[in-house]
Write a structure and sequence with these properties.
3-stranded antiparallel beta sheet, 548 residues, 13 strands, 4-stranded mixed beta sheet, monooxygenase, Cyt_P450, binds protoporphyrin IX containing FE, single chain
Amino acid sequence: MFPPNSAPTVLLASLVCYLFLKRFEPTDVPLLVGLLVVPPLIVSFLRGDSLDLLFGPLLRSWSLYCSGLLFSILTYRISPLHPLSKYPGPMTCKISKLWLTFVVSRGKLHVYVKGLHDKYGPIVRIGPNELSINEVSLVPSILGVKGMPKGPLWDGRRISGKKGPGSKEAVRGNLIGARDLKLHSEARKAWNKAFVPAAIKGYEPILIRRVTQLVESLGAQKSRSVDLSRWFSFFSFGGGFELMRDGDKDGLWHKMERGLYFPALAQQIPWCISFLLYFPMVGQEMKALGKFAMDQAKRRLNEGSIHDDLFYYLIDDKRVDAEPYPFPLVVSNSVLAIVAGSDTSATVLANTFFLLLSHRESYERLKLELDEAFPRAVKEPTDPALLSSQPYLNAVIKESLRLFPPVATSLQRAPSLRTGDKVLGEGFIIPEGTAVVVPPYTMHRDPRYFSPSPEKYIPERWLGGDDDTGTEFIVNKDAFIPFSTGPANCVGKNLGLLEIRMVVAYMIQAFELQFADGYDEERWEDELKDYLLMQKGSLPVVVTSRAA
Ligand code: HEM
C-alpha cells in the first residue's frame, strides 16, 4: 500500500506533530491546519509521488498521519504516564472533552458531575486535563486569594467573535475574560466601585420603581394564571428594556437565553472557538446578543451621564479622569452586566418561589415574618437593612441558592501559564495545564457539609437547632458558594441579594400565590438546564391580590 519505508516516516511525523501540540497547545487556526496537512504533503513530495497519482497516495498518507496522531493523543491520555492517571473518572471523560460537551448539550451537566462524585469520590477526572474537586478544605487554594486564575473555559466563552468583545482591544479591562491575575484585578477595580454601599444606595430608587412595576403589572393580569418565571426574567432584564410593559416583542430575552447555549458548549472545548468563528452561521443567537449589547452601549454612551446606574461606573466614570474605555471593552462590560446581572437573579427568584409554593408551611411562615416586619398598607418592604435582618427570609433565599445555585458547575481555575505546577493543601499538586472545577451544585448537596437530608428543602437548617427527629443541623458555611469566593467571586452579590429580598417581600405582601391547576411539580427540576448559568422552564402560577 505504501512505498517501502514511507509508513514509518508518516507515523514519525505524526508523533513529532503530537509532541509539538502537547508542548505548545497552539490555537492559531492557520498553524493547526498547517500541522494537520503539511507533514503528509512533504512526505509525499519527498517520496516523489507523481502528480497523476498524487491524490491516492496522499490521501493514504494523510489518513495514516491523522490515525497516528489520534492514537498518540488517546494512548497518552489513558496511559499511566499521564499526570492525572491516578485520579478516577469515566473512560469517556479521560479520552476527550467531547463527551462532556455532549452532556452539556442536554443541559444536565450539574446532575452528571454530581453523579460522578457520588460514584468516584471528592476528586474526579472529568476531562483529559481537568479535575472536578468537591472538597471544601481545598476551596481556598483554588478559588481564594492565594488560589489560581480563571481556567481555559473562559477562552471558549468569547461570544462576539474576532471584532467583538474578544478582540485584543477589549482584553485589557475585560473582567470576565481576564485569565491573568494582574489584568483581572485591574479590571475588577471599576466593577468594585460600582458595587460599594454608596453606589448600591444610588440604585435603590431604580430597583424600587421596577419592583413596583412588577407587582402592578402582575396585579393587572387578566388571565387566571401567569408564567412567573417569565415575569421574573422580564423584571430582571433591567432599565431601558421595557419587557414588563411590552413583552419580549423584539426577542431580547430569547436572544439571551439562546445566546448562552453556544458558549456553554464551546467552553468545554475552548480550542474550537477559533475554528468556529470562521463559520458565520455558527452561534447566530450569541452574535445577536453581542450586537444587542453593542446597541445598548452606543445608546448609553450617547445619552451620557444622566443615570445613576451601573453603566455610570462602567462607562462614564472613567471619562472624568482618564482616557475613555475602548468601545469593544464597553460592549463586553455591557454583555457581562446584562447576562451576569439578570439571568442569575431571575433564576434565583423563580427557584425560590417554586420551592415556597411546593412547601406551603415555609410559605406561611415567611408570610408571618414579613407581615410583622412590614405591616401591609403601612410599610412597603423597601428598607434594605430591615430586609436583610429577616431571618426566615434569608433562610428561604439561602436554601434556594443551596439547592439550585445559578452557576452550578462552572467555577473553573487553572495554574497560570508557564508558572509550573500548583500545590494545593497538603502536597496535593495540580500539574500545569490542568484545569480544576469546583461544582457548587454537588458541594451544596454533600452530606458532609449539609445534613441531615441535603437533598431536601429545609430553610430551618439555616436557623440552627435540630430537625423534626431531633437531629442537629450541620451547615458548613465554607461549602456554601453560590456566589463563588475569592478575588473573582460575584461582584454583584450584594445588589443581587437586595433585589431578591425586595422582590420576595413585595410579592408575598401583595399576593396569594399558588401553582396553576394541573401543574406537575416534577417538571421544575427536569426543566432546569445548566448552560453556563442555570436556565429555567415555565412556572404557571395563579396570582390573587391579598384581601385588604
Ligand atoms: C443574584 C444572583 C447571582 C448569583 C448567584 C451570581 C453568581 C456568580 C458567580 C458564582 C460568579 C463567579 C464565577 C466564578 O467564580 O468563576 C459571579 C461572577 C460575577 N457576577 Fe454574579 N451572580 C449573581 C448576581 C449578579 C449581579 C446582580 C451582578 C451585577 C451586574 C453580577 C455580576 C457578576 C460579575 C461582573 C461577575 C464576574 C466577577 C469577576 O470575574 O471578577 N452577578 N456571579
